[in-house]
From TrEMBL:
Keyword Kinase assigned: yes
Keywords: ATP-binding, Kinase, Lipid biosynthesis, Lipid metabolism, Nucleotide-binding, Phospholipid biosynthesis, Phospholipid metabolism, Transferase
Every DAGKc domain range: 1-130
Protein name from the UniProt record: Diacylglycerol kinase family enzyme
GO term, biological process aspect, one: phospholipid biosynthetic process
Gene3D superfamilies listed in its UniProt record: 2.60.200.40, Probable inorganic polyphosphate/atp-NAD kinase, domain 1
Family matches, as InterPro entries: ATP-NAD_kinase_N (IPR017438), Diacylglycerol_kinase_cat_dom (IPR001206), Lipid_Phosphate_FormReg (IPR050187), NAD/diacylglycerol_kinase_sf (IPR016064), YegS/DAGK_C (IPR045540)
The organism of origin for this protein: Branchiibius hedensis
Cited PANTHER family: SPHINGOSINE KINASE (PTHR12358), SPHINGOSINE KINASE RELATED PROTEIN (PTHR12358:SF54)
Cofactor(s) the protein requires to work: Mg(2+)
Recorded family membership: Belongs to the diacylglycerol/lipid kinase family.
UniProt keyword Transferase present: yes
GO-annotated molecular function: ATP binding; kinase activity
Length: 303
């Protein structure tokens, strides 16, 4: 009888015992054993629990939380061959949305995980140079998108209370405070191309292009095509934002100065000053340098 592991972010659960009983019933109805049960902590947000689940022989690992929990669990499952099943409980749930998986009801997500087919997806490997001295930290991993600039500033500055009250609308509401944000000097390198010096409001690199509210930031992005899509946004203050908004809300696939679109397998970014970073919605402080590489088909998700 197969056994799954459920890795729960307890901050997303109001009634843990009820959630566990619901999970037990769904697993039993599909012929699975009672699941292994783990909870994340502030110090270990999912990676360690996933490693333990693999060690205990789990046939499926199901993170219950937002995209940050999913990416942490994925980093522990990488290389194990054990697939993930997504039990969405976050503000954005962007990976589930992009994969057209259930992201509202726990039971629906779990049923999809138990009955769906294995689907390989790409993973981003992100290495960070905090001080610009070419001392690269241990890699982080992401499944949706990495931001370097304004979007990371917005995500990091959105209060939890606002997210609880407005859900995903909290991000654009908080973003209104940043419409006069200045450009950041940055050197950008795609694959083996020559580095280019430019100025940007933010750079976003990812495998998934769909945001909450149906907004297609990167219409050509695919989570399983072995490539990274990148968008360099140059708003240039209050008067520059209309061009950016029209391009994105109009789902334009064309590249322009305001919204420059590129495709690569590796992207290196080097800022002229410490710049905020986010990976899959997790704010990771600031840095000077960032390398993002695609690991094609490195993870399997049941969908």
């Amino acid at each position: 009888m197969p056994t799954a592991a459920v890795i729960v972010n307890p901050t997303k659960v109001s009634d843990p015992e009820r959630l566990r009983a619901q999970a037990r019933a769904v697993f039993e109805s599909h012929g699975w054993a009672e699941p292994l049960w783990f909870e994340t902590t502030a110090r270990d947000t999912g990676r360690g629990q996933a490693l333990e689940a693999v060690q205990q022989g789990a046939d499926l690992i199901c993170p219950y939380g937002g995209d940050g929990t999913v990416r942490a669990v994925a980093s522990g499952a990488l290389g194990s061959g054990v697939p993930l099943g997504l039990l969405s409980a976050g503000t954005g749930n962007l990976l589930a949305r992009n994969m057209k998986l259930p992201h509202r009801r726990f039971q629906d997500g779990l049923t999809a995980a138990l009955t769906g087919r294995p689907r390989p997806i790409d993973v981003m490997r992100v290495t960070i140079d905090r001080d610009g001295d070419d001392q690269w930290a241990e890699p982080e991993y992401g499944l949706v998108m990495t931001g370097f600039g304004l979007d990371a500033d917005i995500l990091g500055g959105t209060p939890d209370a606002l997210k609880a009250r407005l859900s995903w609308l909290a991000y654009p509401v908080n973003g209104l405070r940043h419409v006069r944000h200045d450009h950041t000097a940055m050197t950008v390198t795609f694959d083996d191309d020559q580095p280019v010096d430019t100025e940007v409001t933010t750079v976003i690199v990812g495998s998934c292009g769909l945001l909450t509210g149906g907004v297609q930031l990167m219409p050509n992005a695919r989570f399983d095509d072995g490539e990274l899509d990148a968008v360099l946004i140059r708003a240039g203050g209050l008067l520059g934002w209309p061009k950016v908004v029209v391009s994105i809300l109009g789902r334009s696939k064309r590249s322009s100065h305001a919204v420059e679109r590129r495709v690569a397998r590796a992207v290196e970014l080097r800022a002229g000053a410490p710049t905020p970073i986010e990976i899959d919605g997790d704010h990771l402080g600031s840095a000077i340098g960032l390398r993002i590489e695609v690991l094609p088909s490195a993870l399997t998700v049941r969908s």
